[in-house]
Structure of NAD(P)-dependent alcohol dehydrogenase:
Amino acid sequence: MASAGKAAVIREKSGPFHIEDVEVGEPRADEVLVRIVASGICHTDIIVRDQVLPPGPPAILGHEGAGVVEAVGSGVGLLAPGDHVVLAPMSCSMCRNCLIGHPMNCDSFTPLNFGGCRADGSTAYHDSHGGKLNAHFFGQSSFSSHVVVSARSAVKVSDQAPLELLGPLGCGMQTGAGAVLHALAPPAGASIVVFGAGAVGLAAVMGAVIAGCDPIIAVDLNASRLDMAVELGATHAVQAAEDAVEQIQAVTGGGADFALDAVGLPTTLRQAFTALNVGGTAGLVGANALGQEVSLDLMHLLFGRTVKGIIEGDTVPSVFIPRLVELHLRGRFPFDKIVKRYPFTEINTAVADTEAGRAIKSVLIY
Ligand SMILES: [Zn+2]
Ligand SMILES: [Zn+2]
């Protein structure tokens, strides 16, 4: 039987989110029905609202959901009603990258997460007039009180953890922390610089603290975000400016071993790359419109430097998210410090605060 729910629906490019009654279909054999308790708001929700990336309206976005399993399909063995879950991006489980443990590089990542529908083109979501809604965004569409997701996207977590905080672990937090702990994997004592002290960049700073990096340099335009980076363990804060690279070279004695661009602009990636020591690696996690290009100094690259694109921290979500939950419970991943809560019905205020920089990580409570 279909479930009645409430969802925040986008009806026009860059328009507001409308809270509407929606109908959510029943889970198929490999799916589960989840009652959403809370959802983070991520930069990618905002650029999809603006149609920088698909799916277009009418659509239900949201991809940092946390909730409780209400029903499971006949083929689901590892989850049961009552389980606490964090929802993670979808992957196919069968392609080469999925099979070798890099599901966030899945060959079908784009259609499965940005296609607006299931892999077979169907949707579980309709509005009150029976109209089809683009949904299954990142396998979930968590701006809905009830979601139908593949069991592969639902990561069971400890019921000792504060469920309403955990949604951002499914995207922003695993993107930043995973980029450091998984993709860059710096040894203890390595130097690292993080461009952008928003939610993803601050998660990277927390990851760098766990990895034992030193120094940890945060770069941003916003002084209060730099203060937060220092509170979370950055050893140095650098005001983003023309001379940011010189400042990083001064702190590191020549250049950083690792750099992460959590902004995603050609200028910030170029600075992250330029700030590297010989043999250093720069990672890119910030998303932008298709077709942007960056120019890099060839001889600087030739001296053993690497530039690496990193999707969702290149993690295996069902392994990494429970690990972040455990680190949080032990006080070693204090991402709650950057969370600001809003009632679900105030989604437009939360989005405006996120865009204006008044909130680092907005979380909607259902
Ligand atoms: Zn795959
Ligand atoms: Zn995201």
About this structure: The pocket of zinc ion (ligand 1) is lined by residues 91-92, 94-95, 97-98, 106-108 (CB under 6 Å). The mean pLDDT is 97. The CA atoms of residues 102 and 366 lie 32 Å apart.
